[in-house]
Write a structure and sequence with these properties.
Order of helices and strands: EHEEHEHEE
Strand content: 25-35%
Shape: globular
Largest sheet: 6 strands, mixed
Distance between the termini: 19 Å
Radius of gyration: 14 Å
Oligomer: single chain
Number of domains: 1
Strand order of the largest sheet: 2-1-3-4-5-6
Length: 127
Amino acid sequence: MKIYIDENYPKSVFELMKSLHNLSGNDKYEISRWGDVEVREDDLKDSVFLVIDFMEKGISIPYEKLFEDGYRTFVCKAKKSDDFSRFGLALTLFTVWPSILEKSEIDQGKFLYSFKYGGKKLNSKYK
């Protein structure tokens, strides 16, 4: 399975997640930075995408369109009023990472899950 992390995630957070995941010894997943590689349509059913959404309420239309187009997406909801930092984002991602991996294996169809910046659980938006 391929995990694509959106380029809106700071590169340091991406590198940290990739390094820690490599240390886990779990080679079932390949982590790439979305935008650095081309995603083929054939890869959609075996890929998940992590994005950040700064919209105050709901999910941004582009991310809803990704769901409609068959993408399996996890959206980190962050508000401008949050004390947004790379460290906080990395901690949030570490907290939900096991759930992301579990949902990626269980849910084979398209989906859109969200989690709040600083949150601890995934919320199902669409399945």
